[in-house]
Amino acid sequence: MRVVGLHPDVLVATSRVWQTTCTIVRNGDECFVIDSPVFPDELEVLPAVLEHAGFALTGLLATHADWDHLLGRLAFPGAALGVAETTAARLTAEPGAAARELRAFDDEHYLDREAPLSLGQVQALPVPGHCEIGEEELELHPADGHTADGMAVWIGWARVVVCGDYISPVEVPLLADGGSRDAYIATLRRLEPLVDGAAYVVPGHGEVLDATRAAAILREDLNYLAKLPEAELPIARRGEAQRAIHAANVQRVRSRV
């Protein structure tokens, strides 16, 4: 797992699998961990990362309910988890889904974990809205389209936007179950002004981006989505995995026409 500092109050850890990102933000004596790394050893070392940086955990946040973003409770078993109201509704509608998908991943990759995933106390946060942290606030913005739920987090004093599974340099837009091309486009439009004002953009998968590169990827993604099902993949994202995502997107869009 690679950890980089974006600001004295913001760290980003990137998992070895799918380049899944985990953002650690503090203000004063409070600290939130947003999303999570994936592998057991990465989660095991996460508390030490916070301790070394002098960050004292207040709670967990997740941008959406996909299982690979919900594993913070394995690193911090006693922490409460804050999510958008749409994500809380999805977790209620899909009880145990994240734990089952994690077990399937672990079985496929021969991984052992000390304990099963339990989400514990889940707090539904109004989105759009704010979440207090120290003397500042995190801005919470709706981010659906990839799935039916989600939020992006704007860390205003650090000029960092944590956008969940959007604006990825390694993954084309993915319309998952419950996702929507129109909603995805609407989310990208909402993210545009945040990207324009950002020093850094943290995608759910892939390296941290500066505003110029993030804006270019955002434009590519808007163009890709607008042209589905006839769209071509962006030049930098044409690997086998991305072609498989594209084929699923095409099928999903055509089934709704």
From TrEMBL:
Domain Metallo-beta-lactamase: 19-205
Gene3D superfamilies from the UniProt entry: Ribonuclease Z/Hydroxyacylglutathione hydrolase-like (3.60.15.10)
Annotated protein name in UniProt: Putative cyclase/dehydrase
Lineage, opening ranks: Bacteria, Bacillati, Actinomycetota, Thermoleophilia, Solirubrobacterales
